[in-house]
C-alpha cells in the first residue's frame, strides 16, 4: 500500500478549505484517511497552512510522497526545502487545451451508434427531392411505365392485336 500526503477538500460550495492528510494514493480525494496532519485554508488572508511538523516529518521519513501542491505548501512552511516555482511545468488554460486537440470528426469512428445512423438517414432523406425519398428510383420507373401505358391507344378489340 503506497501512501501519499494529499489535500482533502472540505467546506461549502465556493468556500473551500482543505485538510492535509495521509491517504492511500489510489483512494478517492474524500476517501478513507490514514492520518490527519493539518489544515490549509486558501481563502483566508493571508492563507492559513497549519500542519503538525513532527507527524509530517515522520511520514516523510517512512517514504510517503506529497502531492505537487502539498510539496509547494510544505516548502513555503519551511518543513521541506523550498521549490523554485519557475521550474515547475505550467498548466495551460482550458481554451488552449481545446485548440490543441484535433477535431472530433477527424478521428476515425469505430462504428456509429444506431441513433446516429437513424439521424443520418433522416438528414439524407431531407436533402433528396421528394420523388427520390425511400426507393425513389422505383417510383420513377413505375411512373414512366404508367405514362407509356396511357399513351398507347387500345384497339377496339380490347387490347388484343387484330389478326389478318
Keyword list:
164 residues, alpha+beta, S16 Ribosomal Protein, Chain: A, 5-stranded mixed β-sheet, 5 helices, 5 strands, 34% helix, 20% strand, rod-shaped
Q: What does this entry look like structurally?
A:
- With 164 residues, the chain is an alpha+beta fold.
- The protein has a domain at 3-89: Ribosomal protein S16 (S16 Ribosomal Protein, Chain: A).
- 34% of the residues lie in helices and 20% in strands.
- The chain is built from five helices and five strands.
- The protein has helices at 53-61, 68-77, 94-100, 114-127, 136-151, and strands spanning 3-12, 15-24, 35-41, 48-51, 65-66.
- It has a five-stranded mixed β-sheet with strand order 4-3-2-1-5.
- Strand 3 (35-41) and strand 4 (48-51) form a beta hairpin.
- The protein is rod-shaped and about 110 Å long.
- It starts with a strand and ends in a 13-residue tail after the last helix.
Give the CA-based shape.
Answer: rod-shaped
Structural class: alpha+beta
Biggest sheet: strands side by side, in what order? 4-3-2-1-5
Provide the β-strand percentage band: 15-25%
CATH topology of the domain at 3-89: S16 Ribosomal Protein, Chain: A
> What's the alpha carbon Rg, rounded to whole Å?
37 Å
Distance between the termini: 107 Å
Q: Can you tell me the residue ranges where pLDDT is under 50 for at least 5 consecutive residues? A: none
- Give a short account of the largest sheet: 5 strands, mixed
Q: Which class of the domain at 3-89 in CATH terms? A: Alpha Beta
Helix-strand string: EEEEHEHHHH
Number of helices: 5
Measured as a percent range, the helix fraction is 25-40%
The appropriate CATH architecture of the domain at 3-89 is 2-Layer Sandwich
Mean pLDDT metric? 76
Number of distinct beta strands: 5
